[in-house]
Q: What sequence folds into this?
């Protein structure tokens, strides 16, 4: 858990994902102090990034240790310990401008039910958003040990999102495109049983900074790369409620 916490604070993957999420939310016309509910918030890395930009954040996770970590990261947020498999009724009747599942549904045997429940908590005209790992060609022992059920394609994700009543798919976009070749090589040429643990190690400082800068440049080129449908190791999705 300590390794995960360090990675969330410093690793280029987490830092660039947080930046990408904030960028896509702005692209949807959402601005602070909009209220975002993050389901499966973990240690609150994304929530802390958004709260730092002025968002109101509420996070829910089933692990007390992770919720305590999230609350420490974001004292202004609201964090609740709750097993999401039991539904969302204990959260009360409140609805939110955005409900988010960041790298959550790939862990679920029934992601459709999770998305339907999440959509019920979005205000009319609000957004259901999230991220998932992409490209089954990247499937490896890392996914198995992470508890993933699958890695998604754009079509699969669009079908799943549109199955939530009252949700219209707004956008599905790839990101972390520059990571596809090295991930494919690492997971094919030199698979290791400790690959998940090694993936949590923060790279050497200059290398970590260079990777973050490269992914930031990728984000700036996002519109062109979206047009060309260049695949990434992750996918972002957004749907709007009626």
A:
């Amino acid at each position: 858990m300590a390794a995960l916490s360090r990675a969330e604070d410093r690793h280029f993957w987490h830092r660039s994902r947080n930046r990408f999420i904030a960028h896509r939310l702005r692209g949807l016309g959402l601005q602070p102090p909009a209220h975002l509910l993050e389901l499966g918030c973990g240690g609150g890395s994304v929530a802390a990034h958004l709260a730092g930009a002025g968002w109101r954040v509420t996070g829910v996770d089933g692990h007390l240790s992770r919720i305590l970590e999230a609350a420490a990261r974001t004292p202004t947020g609201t964090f609740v310990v709750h097993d999401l498999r039991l539904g969302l009724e204990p959260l009360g009747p409140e609805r939110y401008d955005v409900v988010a599942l960041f790298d959550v549904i790939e862990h679920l045997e029934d992601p459709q039910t999770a998305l339907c429940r999440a959509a019920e908590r979005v205000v009319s005209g609000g957004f259901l958003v999230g991220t998932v790992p992409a490209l089954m060609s990247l499937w490896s022992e890392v996914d198995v040990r992470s508890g993933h059920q699958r890695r998604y394609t754009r079509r699969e994700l669009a079908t799943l999102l549109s199955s939530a009543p009252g949700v219209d798919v707004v956008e599905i976009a790839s990101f972390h495109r520059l990571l596809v070749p090295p991930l494919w090589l690492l997971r094919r040429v030199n698979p290791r049983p400790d690959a998940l643990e090694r993936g949590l190690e923060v790279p050497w400082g200059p290398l970590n900074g260079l990777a973050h800068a490269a992914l930031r440049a990728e984000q700036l080129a996002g519109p062109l790369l979206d047009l060309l449908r260049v695949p990434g190791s992750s996918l972002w999705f957004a749907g709007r409620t009626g």
User: Anything to note?
Assistant: The beta strands are 35-39, 56-61, 78-81, 96-102, 122-133, 167-175, 234-241.
